[in-house]
Amino acid sequence: MLSIKNLSAEIDGKKILDGLELEIKAGEVHAIMGPNGAGKSTLSAVLAGRPEYVVTGGTVTYMGKNLLDMSPEDRACEGVFLAFQYPVEIPGVSTTNFLKTAVNQKRLYNGLEPMEATDFLKMMRQKMELVEMDKSLTGRSLNEGFSGGEKKRNEVFQMAMLEPNLAILDETDSGLDIDALRLVSNGVNKMRNTERSFVVITHYQRLLDYIIPDFVHVLYKGKIVKSGDKELAKELEVKGYDWIKNELEAAV
Amino acid sequence: MLAEIINSNFNRYASGAEKDLFFETRKQAFEAFETMGFPTQKNEEWKYTNIKGVTAGSFEMSDERPAHAKTIFEKSVLNEIKANQLIFVNGIFYPDLSILLEKDKSIVLTNLANARTEYSELFNRHFSKYAKTEEHSLNALNTALLNDGAFIYVPEGVKPEYPVIINHYIDSTHINVLVQPRNLMVIDKGAEITLIETYESIGFNASYTNVVSEIYVAENAHLEHYKVQQQAGESYHTNFTQMFQESNTSINQVTLTLDGKLVRNNLHFYMNGKNCNSLLYGLYIIEKQNTVDNHTRVDHAQPNCFSDEKYKGILKDQSTAIFNGKIIVHLDAQKTNAYQRNQNVLLSDEAVVNTKPQLEIFADDVKCTHGATIGQLDEEPMFYLRSRGIPENEARKMLLNAFADEIAERIKIPELVELLEKKIEEKL
Ligand SMILES: Nc1ncnc2c1ncn2[C@@H]1O[C@H](COP(=O)(O)OP(=O)(O)O)[C@@H](O)[C@H]1O
Ligand SMILES: [Mg+2]
To answer: What is the value of ipTM here, to two decimals?
Structure first.
């Protein structure tokens, strides 16, 4: 599904990703952990095509295509979805209208007719239940005045609406209380299938008790420095990131 | 040159049948205009706005009554609004096309020339009493040469069922036309009305339209006032609107500038009584090398008044916007609350904005804030929308609509909001 080779990227002339390698097959869930500032959000932004980030080397192949060549909107229509760490508030753009446009743009891209209004509303209702999102939120402007937790739920709700092949969740767990965390994880788990892959970026092992990953990677200073299974996450929880840092320094 | 044309037109009034009661007013104003002349960029109030296109131009006043006015009026989007209507073409009144609905028979809806005789008491009490001519030479010019315009009187306590639309068509089909519309509206005690003033062009020659509107709002009255400027092409439009508010009045005013080569709006509020509420909202969408200049002035002359002002602009190409917002809190105007913001989105590197708040506060118990922003569309919302599969163009349109929405929300007539949305769609 996704093959990242020797990826380097910078922003404002500052090198952030530095030879990153990652292979993801269909249906797999990969967790990416790492200390603050390691480059986790940068990786997700580069995959989603954020214009401010400059790729300075390496390749990203998604479903056999060169992902880096595509505009952000084409990536989305090809099935890449990013749940933002900090979803932006957009006053004046209604959540419903925005989603209708997004869903229909994706359909248009894939040669499908726009959805009937009633079908769309039905789908909205179903997907909202998935994360128990309050109906009143979709009548409001996109994320405007939403609490931190509501914003994160809205991200998962949008993911459910857009049914991506590859979903990247950037710290979707941060700022959630335990109930919201369970809801969000449930939403993700219900969407897991053999076709769909997930990259779950998180700072804490806690989320991985709910979303059980197939692989866990540690991102540090712009590259993956350690990979393992879910036990690695538990080890990190106990020993902290200093353990990895020390190990790396000892190796030099 | 325009100066000569003005001279000869004035002389026509001096010698012709127009020499009447009204001539003294014209004469004084003409002399005032002669002394002041057209504003130049040396004048602080016109620093960024060059009206050479007007002064060096050649325009004629026209008495013609174009036969196609009816068709044009019927095609107008605003004609879909169920409303009382006054129609003027090049400042000439068309009573046959104007409409006073049965339900609203108690209001006076006529032209100024008629009001001068038929409603002389009201006319003399209010005409040329609010819009100052000193320091505003274009007001003097308007008074000296005025063609005609709307006269509206809403009697005490009357709340018309339907809005009133004042349609000014500027027809430059055959010539470069010079028009001096003059409107006077008197809203009596406790009355409530919605007024729409629109300016539309017909034809492709140049035009210079110089408007003065005076609006008197008596105690406890409420006014919804919308000004829509959509004269296109080589249209030069200067406008001076003076609101005069007595105590316990409220005004919701929205100024939409959707087209025109050069538009200068002067919108002045004078709060002459306590507990007034004044809302001023504006939206301008500018393209090409066009200029839109909004000068507003709110005089808080009495205590306990509230004013809220927000002007938003979208600039394309090499266009220029000027915003100058004066708030003057007089010595007696304690407990004043006055807010002002101006926000601009630039869609091109070559567009220019000059924005300046001017607060002059002489009272001490006052809350006053102001702020201005100039910038491109934010990158973050743009990327958010695109990351959901919405193409860049579409995303930009969504964000600009959202930007304009804050002003559109202030418009209580759905057809007018529709017109605005259509214009935005066209321009963007
Ligand atoms: N716009 C920017 N300009 C300069 N540096 C940035 C910018 N955005 C992020 N960075 C830097 O890039 C590094 C990686 O950030 P990020 O990818 O957000 O880390 P993580 O998500 O792992 O905490 C940090 O050192 C951060 O300060
Ligand atoms: Mg991050």
So the answer is: 0.96
